[in-house]
What does this fold into?
Amino acid sequence: MKPIQMVDLKSQYEKIKTEVDAGIQEVIDSTNFIKGGKVVDFQHNLEKYLNVKHVIPVGNGTDALQIALMALGFQPGDEIITPTFTFIATAEVVALLGLTPVVVDVDPDTFNISIDSVQKAITPRTKAIVPVHLFGQNADMEALIEIAREFDLKIIEDACQSIGSVYTFSDGRQVQSGCMGDIGCTSFFPSKNLGCYGDGGAIFTNDDFIAGKIRAVANHGMVVRYQPRPVYRGPSAGS
It folds into this structure.
């Protein structure tokens, strides 16, 4: 009897072995390994699929979350609301940057962030909400966007377990997961909805200014190769 695995990567690979092997060989033959070639092709294809202006590939989902927070220019002590039911990386990157993770309850029916808990957790130091979309289900983004507008907060979506799902707003608009807040983040860890052979991640945004900052942070502050820009301190007034 063959054991049933939750994520059977070997069986998946065997079904598309010829295509995968050819793709890997093509990358090796080109020697175009970093931020070019197939990665750029994938970036453009993902932008089209998600109907989002900017997809920025990064090393993994944790990097995606950390870079997103860095690009928004938060300062030590700023509070970031995130749910209790998530992988440690969501709160870990907040703490690593000297920010304060404020963990709140989840909805027992969906395990996504509880809107009531978010509202109760907001203080004058709150700067952002990081909803975590789980099991292919999106958090109640319409309610979260309303809260963010009321309190001038940023929304960074953790879409590591929801990429490919669609959220329908009350006016009938449908938007891909990770593309509703200011920034969306995903992981391509092999067991994710969209996984890779190894590790990887990406950041999504429709904001040109934020996209520029994300690309700079992800590239050690460089916009032009080996010419670092000054440290980014956050959006300028009126931007």
